[in-house]
Specification:
- The complex is a heterodimer.
- By secondary structure, chain A is mainly β.
- Chain A contains 8 helices and 42 strands.
- Chain A is globular, with a radius of gyration of 30 Å.
- Chain A starts with 10 loop residues before the first helix and ends with a strand.
- By secondary structure, chain B is mainly alpha-helical.
- Helices cover 46% and strands 5% of the residues of chain B.
- Chain B has 20 helices and 10 strands.
- In chain B, strands 1-5 form a two-stranded antiparallel ribbon. In chain B, strands 2-3 form a two-stranded antiparallel sheet.
- In chain B, helix 8 runs antiparallel to helix 9.
- The chains are: A mainly beta, B mainly alpha.
Chain lengths: 871, 534
């Protein structure tokens, strides 16, 4: 961000002191608290440049090893007559569900279950009493919906009919309103820009909102011939209320809505609590919440204040020699409070959680640079150093037990001390660096860049003795060469611009602190005796070393035919070795995971961008963006052949890094099959489980594409973007739930007759002949991840925007200097997908393991209006 | 000129600053101290580790009832028809398989289970204590005995398990510990007890406050080690009677528990998560965060159990059982405890039998799962009953009827650990002994009588692990299996739990080797001491 690294870790990870860099929003659910870049005011951003590969690394360091996003914010500029420029921007966006009802759910059978002791144990029955007999779970394995009066969870009889409007009735139309104003101007010596913005977002889940206010001041000083500076101060205040839960119930209203029985109207779950304040749950499964209790009674709020400042003085010692300093501070305070209120069904007692975190990062750096031309040659070079220091102080308070002495009053002072647990965290690390870079140019068409950087990491194992192979520092060079062929050579006239480039770079990096040795966690006392246990659940690794990644890239960029045809092609290799990866290990080792410098992962890819402009006054510019990335796990630690990096909530699907396979292989609990591939069933008529997991494909799509069409006519602009991803798979955890609860259309066959599972019997030869109830069969399929892994390929109408810029003429009698209006729609239409129920882009995890979904929020579309006025 | 001079001074300054910055950047001297977690100590007194390890009997520090809920309440107790449940969540009631419940005791990558908690910490404690095994001999021995107890439950549940190399992820750098055959594990468990019990001494440091069972009473610890040895010796009776006899005799000769005061139970003062009885955590709420199993009416006493108590005129019936509990806030209030009013729920059902409501069935009395109740793990009564069986089988000399009567008395009086008011008068004890005498009709009837008493005792103390293991060994008490549609055992009583499915990928080689030896990974696969193919 404006030349200063901005920590973009998800805040959840910071609070948990999550040292391995994996997401803490895992299979057991949680809430997403956002990350750094999402807090920026979009109106403040001048440009965003994505630097791929390692070429950004010499200047930006190890955190740029997978590329960097360079965000430049707007700065002040000189106006006509030295006037103050004012820019006002207003944006209103509405968000609604993409689908108003579940297309893949069945609405033929209602709440209920089979009854093993009834006359016909193969067919589902309606509940006969308030407790839901024959079973009081949340299943829709009951009788055909016949409109008869059937008793429900609250003792009220209602018609046994399909309730198709639960989605529509529960979710609201969300909205986001952003207003911003910016003042800018300049004198001879100083340019300034001050911007203020306010954003208010209401989610589609009732009672969920987020407010963000940004203040930003940018100063550009040109104080003397020998001294100039850039200074930035940004303050971001964020207030979230009831951020939605993800993944597992409890605390995830989406889970309840997704699994609501077909014959239960969500509005009949109101009020959410009875007169004593107790949650009205609709089954004996206390882990499935009344969704209204989650949105109305659960209490969740968070506040964040972040200050990012930077000051970069520059001293021009001669006209070709300069020195520059960099002082950057990034600090935020974050506080999150979550209360399971009195009356909550689970946990059985109310609970109070408060997480506070203070994050601090400072970067102190200097560089000395040369910028000189010698006839046809140009030299732009510098050497510099940087000291990065990062600390996160965490203060977490949770309560257990019978928390609140006075019910319904939620403050920590209302909890007996014995029930309060406090944990502190203090995570510190430093990276010291020296770096240098030289850009050589010849006649402005041949460019050579050489860089080198050495990092010393506090979080890695220091060398012991002089001959130690283990190092906590790494040197990484890079090299880049580019030629503007259209200037260097005489090319045919249809070539307007042609540039070829080749680059090679190495980057090193570290990991979170305190992973090298064991420590103990003190866990209070029992009967006066203090308790302690081993702290890490990850095996400490005394030999952690810097990872390194190597990337090389060849590219060609050109414009042809009067600049109508644009072409940008790149072919790259990106290899990571000794990556610091935390992998799941067998619990028999005593640990959940171990951290290794993992062998080697390679990525090869091609990226292509073609565009062509048709017409003159009315222009149409179609463009195609196509990228293919092939990843491969080449080697792992020691003699390991695979690492398990994540596990689905159902515990039937894993994400693995497997030698010889692409990154993020999805592996499932599969059916046992005989030699000819038929499923082998046991004597009970249910499929046997295979003794090994089965590979289903990669969770990361190798193909991505976008097709844009932009139309321009006079003051009108229309942009249409269709995009897609191909070749990846996803575990549809919501579909697994829909099988378990009898909601999926696929669970219809055999409801009235029972069924015989496909495949053969226990002998592996003769066809299976055991007739079982549909409910028994489909619920059992929940145990097989194999059933629910689908292609995650999709094509979407991603966005459509229409802009109009008012003509200056019509504004000539007003102080307005510019006025534009745009209409923007996003996620408007899913043209193709293969995943029942869910959006194929759903995920609850932003970490390394992709390919798992579970009870995700329904997909939404947004439509917004933007007004920009310049004075 | 003045301007130029200024610039020269400036230049000098800048170069000096730059050089300083360069020196700073390459200085990494404080890195090692910076990379030490300031909020967690690198070493702690062994007492702290021992205290925590003792409490990890049923779950983790964060969830003290985690695997107890799944392995004991979901599976073991309903399997031997001490408890019953409608629906299929309490899988043992209907012999259905659930990966999460079946694999919970072993442990999965969510960090819960025996290996990532008790085994990990005990292995470390034993390692740390051995660094000065003279000074730490008592903590070392107590840790070894505690580990034997947990490992024996685990191998009884699963069969072959990682044993010798387990928990050594950090200390030994072993990330895929070998699955050891149960046949090789048992001799080591017995040897460990023998050595650790013998090593306990009053002339070295004794942990007292941190010992929640015996407050550092060395004699009681020795008796506990030998009593556990007797329990494990009898486990071998079916497959290796010679070893069973040898180890039983050795245990008795070494000295076993002599009174209820020596029963191995863990005391809890109540309060925060660390200080509450794990049964309370699962069955409550009493006054803690809990799973609300009893008031939520999801688990009942089995009619097999209630009917047996009624038939035997067991005076404990109203102490362990009651009908119609009420929940007021976070308090479960006791219902009707009159013995004749108790009604057990039949196993294997989806809904309450015709015309009844689930709330009419007997559930656990809140007094035996209150947060301050002890977790009763190995009783003096059990020792007397096992002695009776050893005598009946001729492993040791003695009259089984005498030990049997002592066992009955001890079992009845053990109830007062839950509540002082539960003590019985001598007349009540005699009446029970008279109504249920030791049979004179031969060995088989004797074993049946002993095992029935043990089964009742283990139900009263929530010890489904022992009840199920003993049932598998002796076949008593005689149970009528249920045959629920879609059950995983073809209507037979399960013989073990299945490993967590994750093992298929996390330790594929170990898993394949183990199931290769055992002949499968099913609920019906027999473990070695049960006559399995190992």
């Amino acid at each position: 961000l404006d030349g200063i690294p901005l920590n973009n870790d998800n805040i959840n990870n910071q609070i948990a002191g999550n040292t391995a860099g994996t997401s803490s929003v895992g299979m057991w659910g949680g809430t997403d608290q956002g990350d750094g870049i999402s807090s920026l005011n979009p109106d403040e951003i001048e440009s965003i440049t994505v630097l791929k590969g390692g070429t950004a690394a010499a200047l930006y360091g190890s955190r740029a090893s997978n590329g960097a996003i360079i965000v430049t914010t707007k700065s002040g500029s000189k106006n006509l007559n030295n006037a103050v420029g004012i820019e006002v921007n207003s944006n209103v966006v509405a968000e609604g569900l993409l689908y108003s009802h579940f297309k893949d759910y069945q609405y033929q059978y209602g709440i209920g279950d089979i009854d093993a002791t009834s006359a016909n144990p193969l067919i589902g029955l309606k509940p006969t009493d308030q407790d839901g007999t024959p079973n009081f779970q949340t299943n829709s394995y009951g009788a055909p919906l016949d409109g008869s009066q059937v008793i429900q969870y609250d003792g009220v009889k209602r018609p046994y009919i399909a309730q198709k409007n639960n989605l529509k009735d529960f979710y609201k139309t969300g909205s986001m309103i952003t207003n911003s104003v910016a003042f800018s101007g300049a004198s001879d010596k100083l340019a300034y820009r001050l911007s203020l913005s306010d954003m208010y977002n209401k989610g589609v889940i009732p009672n969920n909102n987020l407010r963000r206010d940004n203040v930003s001041l940018n100063l550009n000083g040109n104080m003397a011939k020998w001294f100039s500076f850039v200074a930035n101060i940004k303050y971001i205040a964020e207030k979230g209320h009831n951020r939605p839960g993800v993944s597992d119930s409890p605390g995830n209203a989406d889970y309840s809505i997704l699994t609501l029985p077909t014959s239960l109207n969500v509005k009949d779950l109101l009020p959410a609590a009875d007169s004593n304040g107790n949650e009205r749950i609709y089954s004996n499964n206390i882990y499935v919440d009344n969704p209204y209790f989650v949105t109305q009674k659960n209490i969740q709020y968070d506040t964040k204040g972040r200050i990012v400042t930077s000051f970069e003085p520059r001293f021009n010692i001669t006209d070709w020699l300069y020195a520059k300093g960099t002082l950057g501070f990034d600090q935020y305070n974050f506080r999150y409070t979550k209360i399971f209120p009195t009356g909550t069904a689970y946990p059985a007692n109310p609970q109070y959680t408060r997480n506070s975190a203070r994050f601090n990062e400072s970067n102190l750096g200097w560089l000395v640079g040369v910028n000189k031309n010698f006839n046809d040659f140009g030299l732009n070079a510098f050497v510099g150093g940087n000291a990065m220091s990062q600390s996160t102080l965490v203060d977490n308070t949770t309560t257990s037990a019978n928390s609140f002495n006075i019910p319904f009053f939620y403050d920590i002072s209302n909890v007996s001390p014995a029930f309060i647990t406090r944990t502190d965290g203090d995570f510190e690390k430093k990276i010291n660096s020296l770096f240098g870079s030289a850009d050589l140019s010849y006649k402005n068409y041949l460019f050579l860049t050489l860089t080198g950087r050495n990092d010393w990491f506090s979080a890695l194992t220091p060398p012991v003795g002089t001959k130690s192979k283990v190092q906590n520092h790494i040197f990484y060079p890079s090299f880049g060469l580019s030629v503007i062929l259209s200037d260097a050579l005489r090319l045919p006239a249809f070539v307007n611009y042609l540039k070829a480039r080749v680059s090679w770079a190495k980057v090193g990096g570290d990991t979170g602190p305190y992973q090298l040795s064991n420590y103990y966690s003190l866990s209070g006392a029992n009967n006066g005796a203090p308790l302690a246990q081993i702290g890490p659940s990850q095996v400490p690794n005394l030999g952690l070393q810097p990872y390194s990644s190597l990337s090389d890239e060849v590219g060609l960029e050109g414009r042809f035919l009067n600049n109508r045809l644009g072409l940008d092609v790149a072919v790259y290799n990106h290899n990571t070795s000794k990556d610091v990866v935390s992998a799941t290990v067998t619990p028999a080792s005593g640990y959940q995971s171990a951290v290794f410098n993992v062998g080697k992962i390679t990525n090869k890819g091609v990226e292509l961008l073609v565009s062509y402009k048709v017409g003159n006054n009315f222009t149409w510019t179609p463009s195609l963006n196509l990228a293919y990335n092939k990843s491969r796990v080449v080697a792992l630690y020691g003699d390991l052949t695979q690492l398990i990096v994540d596990n689905a909530r159902t515990q039937t699907v894993q994400i693995a890094q497997e030698i010889g396979k692409p990154y993020d292989e999805v592996q499932v609990q599969a059916f046992q099959r005989n030699g000819t591939g038929e499923i082998v069933n046991g004597s009970t008529g249910l499929p046997n489980t295979a003794i090994t997991y089965k590979d289903m494909g990669t969770g990361v799509a190798p193909w991505t594409t976008g097709i844009g069409n932009s139309f321009h006519y006079k003051r009108w602009n229309l942009n249409v973007l269709v995009d897609g991803k191909f070749g990846g798979v996803i575990f549809d955890g919501t579909e697994a739930l829909a099988y378990r609860y009898g909601l999926s259309k696929n669970t219809l066959p055999g409801r009235l007759t029972g069924l015989i599972a496909p495949g053969v019997g226990p002998d592996g030869k003769t066809p299976n002949n055991v007739r079982i109830a549909a409910e028994t069969y489909y619920q059992n399929l929940y145990n097989f991840g194999e059933t629910f892994v689908h292609s995650a390929s999709f094509i979407k109408l991603r966005s459509l925007s229409l802009d109009y810029a008012f003509p200056m003429k019509s504004l000539s009698n007003t102080p307005i200097k510019g006025l534009s209006l745009s209409l923007v729609g996003r996620n408007l239409w899913t043209i193709m997908k293969h995943t029942p129920i869910i959006d194929p882009e759903s995920t609850y995890n932003n970490g390394n393991a992709q390919g798992l979904e579970f009870a995700s929020a329904p997909a939404t579309r947004t439509i917004g209006l933007n007004l920009n006025v310049k004075f | 000129m003045a301007h130029l001079l200024k610039m020269k001074i400036m230049l000098r300054k800048i170069i000096t600053i730059s050089l300083l910055a360069g020196v700073m950047a390459s200085c990494t001297k404080n890195f090692q101290t910076l990379n030490v977690n300031p909020t967690a100590p690198a070493t702690v007194p062994l007492d702290y580790l021992f205290a925590q390890s003792q409490l990890l009997y049923a779950g983790s520090a964060g969830d003290p009832g985690y695997f107890e809920w799944r392995a004991n309440l979901y599976y073991s107790m309903p399997i031997v028809q001490q408890m019953a449940s409608l629906g299929t969540t309490y899988n043992g009631d209907k012999y259905v398989w659930s990966n999460e419940a079946s694999g919970a005791y072993f442990g999965t990558s969510n960090g819960e289970g025996n290996y990532p908690n008790s085994v990990k910490n005990l292995v470390n404690l034993i390692y740390q204590a051995r660094l000065d095994s003279v000074k730490n001999v008592n903590i070392l021995s107590m840790a070894r005995i505690t580990k034997v107890m947990l490992m024996s439950i685990m191998t009884d549940l699963y069969g072959d398990i990682p044993y010798f190399q387990a928990g050594l992820g950090y200390i030994g750098g072993n990330l895929t510990p070998v699955y050891d055959p149960q046949k090789a594990i048992y001799p080591d468990l017995l040897n460990e007890l023998s050595q650790a019990g013998a090593a306990l001494t009053t002339s070295a440091y004794i942990p007292a406050t941190s010992d929640f069972a015996f407050s550092g009473n060395i004699t009681s610890w020795k008796h506990f080690a030998n009593s556990l040895m007797l329990r494990l010796a009898m486990r071998l009776q079916k497959v290796d009677p010679t070893s069973a006899a040898t180890w039983a005799a050795k245990a008795i000769a070494g000295g076993v528990m002599t009174s209820n005061k020596e029963t191995y139970l863990l005391n809890y003062p109540g309060g925060g998560t660390a200080s509450i009885n794990p049964h309370s955590y699962n069955l409550g709420p009493s006054d803690n965060v809990a799973r609300n199993v009893v008031a939520g009416a999801v688990l009942q006493w089995s009619n097999t159990f209630i009917n047996a108590m009624k038939a035997r005129q067991d005076p404990r019936i109203g102490q362990v059982s009651n009908v119609g509990v009420t929940q007021v806030g976070v308090q479960v209030n006791m219902g009707d405890t009159i013995g004749s009013h108790q009604l057990g729920l039949p196993n294997g059902l989806d809904n309450a039998p015709g015309g009844t409501n689930i709330s009419q069935y007997s559930v656990m009395n809140p007094l035996i799962f209150k947060s301050t109740a002890p977790d009763i793990i190995l009783t003096y009564a059990e020792v007397e009953f096992l002695k009776a069986e050893a005598e009946a089988r001729g492993y040791i000399p003695g009259t089984p009827a005498a030990e049997y009567a002592l066992g009955q008395e001890a079992a009845l009086q053990q109830m007062s650990s839950f509540n002082a008011a539960f003590a019985f008068t001598p007349a009540q004890v005699t009446a029970y002994q008279t109504a249920n005498p030791y049979p004179t009709t031969g060995l088989e009837d004797g074993v049946k009588a002993i095992q029935t008493e043990l089964w009742l005792l283990w139900a009263d103390t929530f010890n489904g692990y022992e009840a199920w293991a003993s049932y598998r060994r002796t076949g008593y008490p005689v149970l009528t299996p249920v045959n629920y549609p879609g059950n995983a055992t073809n209507g037979t009583i399960p013989r073990r739990l299945q490993y967590p499915s994750e093992q298929k990928t996390l330790d594929a080689a170990g898993y394949q080797a183990a199931i290769g030896r055992m002949g499968g990974d099913l609920l019906t696969t027999k473990v070695w001491w049960d006559g399995g193919t190992n």
